[in-house]
Design brief:
Layout lengths: L5 H10 L6 H29 L25 H6 L4 E2 L2 E2 L10
Antiparallel strand pairs: 1-2
């Protein structure tokens, strides 16, 4: 297998949304071949097992009745009181999505 370039490792980090320091890029550039070889080995094992016939037996879907088992609002105040911040009946949480993208 060929070694990945530092630019490819940085690009892979960007795609994975992982910020890599220059030291981490250097470390991964020496380890990436071993990682890819291991993944290749696992893929080969899975391919070998795929040739065996699957054993399929009877399958049953066991579902419970969809019933309300508590009173509406029974746990609301207890849950909201555990939140660091709230606005009336709403939990205030940190914004994690950027809608500008």
């Amino acid at each position: 297998m060929s070694t990945m370039t530092k630019e490819e490792i940085l690009h892979l980090g960007t795609l994975s949304r992982i910020a890599l320091s220059p030291d981490e890029v250097d470390k991964f550039s020496t380890e990436i071949d071993a990682i890819l070889e291991y993944v290749s080995t696992v893929k080969n094992i899975i391919a070998d097992d795929a040739s065996t016939e699957p054993i399929v037996g009877a399958r049953y879907n066991i579902l419970r009745a969809d019933e309300v088992t508590n009173e509406p609002g029974e746990y609301t105040e207890k849950l909201l009181s555990a939140m660091p911040q709230r606005d009336g009946q709403y939990m205030l949480v940190k914004k994690i999505l950027n809608q500008d993208e």
